[in-house]
Write a structure and sequence with these properties.
This protein is an alpha/beta fold and about 325 residues long. It has 2 domains: about 60 residues, no CATH class; about 240 residues, Alpha/Beta hydrolase fold, catalytic domain (Rossmann fold), CATH 3.40.50. It is built from 13 helices and 8 strands. The protein has an 8-stranded mixed sheet, sandwiched between helices. Helix 5 packs across helix 13 and helix 6 packs across helix 7. The chain is globular and about 70 Å long. The chain starts with a helix and ends with a helix. The structure holds 2-acetamido-2-deoxy-beta-D-glucopyranose (NAG) (2 copies). One 2-acetamido-2-deoxy-beta-D-glucopyranose binds next to loops.
């Protein structure tokens, strides 16, 4: 009995020490890219889970190959039968809006709720490009904040080029919201704002989610534990600071957040909404900023907003305002 208690106490106490010594462990916990759910989907065969979709790879960096699914607007399903990747790429230029979907941590582009959202967007009439960042799914390389951002940036420029200038909207869910705003800042620095930004269940700064995690909360009594976490995040170059990014972004923005989100608290979405409203005022742009909340009774929590019956209408209205 005594030994068991001692064991538990030392296991508890060793976690901060291990994290301090091996800070990359925290990075692995944040990306969780090695959990390649769902295990039995062949990512090179999207037809097993999604219709009118082709799989291809982009070299987003030296030695980095990133897997992407291109799902066509559902209205094109008949025409798409048996077509080549070249035909798909050509069709991206048909003038319909393109959504780049940047998923959250854990698992691949084949996870149910990700596929579910792609179906909704395809039914509304958009092209959807859904990628697995470096280190995720069948993509090569190792994840890092800078690396994920580069992947998204590369895909945005690729989409802009092949869609021949159609509206390209960047959609980031959860961890992907930070990738989205990081990429948007870079694109803006390069000279033109991203056409549209949709953030689903976004956080203010990733460290604020980490510090609120149930595992981290077990250590809240340990003096200095929270500053240890921030210190580690700094050492592994992870900040994903949406709140800071939104202070400079001039793109039209739609935030979607469920009141019962059990991973990224709802108040973080509200905070970002306020930040963006103030920023647009300060930067004197008239770009629209909107937040849509989903009632806790609906039970969409962190990953199921795609089930909302009014989601199509909300997104269509936001995009139509931009395309006229
Ligand atoms: C693809 O579309 C066909 C015909 O509409 C449907 O029967 C099939 O279930 C769809 N497959 C997937 C994976 O959604
Ligand atoms: C963090 O970034 C700095 C500066 O770019 C770099 O020298 C360092 O190797 C990076 N650390 C990690 C763990 O990636």
């Amino acid at each position: 009995m005594k030994r068991a208690v001692w064991f538990l106490i030392s296991a508890y106490a060793s976690v901060p020490v291990i994290l301090y010594l091996f800070p990359w462990i925290l990075g692995h916990a944040i990306f969780a890219h090695l959990l390649r759910f769902p295990f039995f989907v062949d990512l090179s065969k999207p037809e097993d889970v999604l219709n009118h979709t082709c799989n291809f790879y982009l070299n987003t960096d030296q030695g980095v190959s990133v897997g992407v699914w291109h799902t066509l607007p559902a209205s094109q399903w008949e025409k798409a039968a048996g077509k080549s990747p070249e035909w798909y790429r050509e069709t991206l230029g048909d003038g319909r809006p393109v959504i780049i979907y940047l998923h959250g941590n854990v698992g691949t582009r084949a996870i149910n709720h990700r596929v579910g959202l792609v179906k909704v967007l395809s039914t509304v009439g958009y092209h959807v490009l859904s990628l697995d960042y470096r280190g995720f799914g069948d993509s090569t390389g190792e994840p890092s904040e800078a690396g994920l951002t580069s992947d998204a940036l590369y895909l945005y420029h690729w989409a802009k080029k092949h869609s021949k200038g159609s509206l390209v909207c960047v959609w980031g869910h959860s961890l992907g919201s930070g990738v989205a705003t990081n990429a948007a800042v870079k694109i803006q620095e390069q000279g033109s704002a991203v056409d549209a930004l949709i953030l689903e269940a976004p956080y203010t700064r990733i460290g604020e989610v980490v510090a609120k995690h149930p595992l981290a909360k077990m250590y809240i009594f340990l003096p200095g534990f929270e500053s240890l976490l921030w210190n580690i995040l700094e050492r592994i170059n992870i900040s994903f600071d949406n709140n800071k990014n939104l202070q400079v972004l001039t793109s039209p923005l739609l935030i979607l957040h469920s009141e019962d989100d059990n991973v990224v608290p709802y108040h973080m979405g509200q905070k970002l909404y306020q930040t963006s409203l103030q920023a647009k005022k300060k930067l004197s742009t008239h770009a629209q900023v909107e937040m849509i909340s989903f009632n806790a009774d609906l039970g969409f929590s962190h990953s199921h907003i795609y089930l909302a019956p009014d989601l199509s209408a909300v997104v269509r209205k936001f995009i139509e305002n931009l395309t006229g």
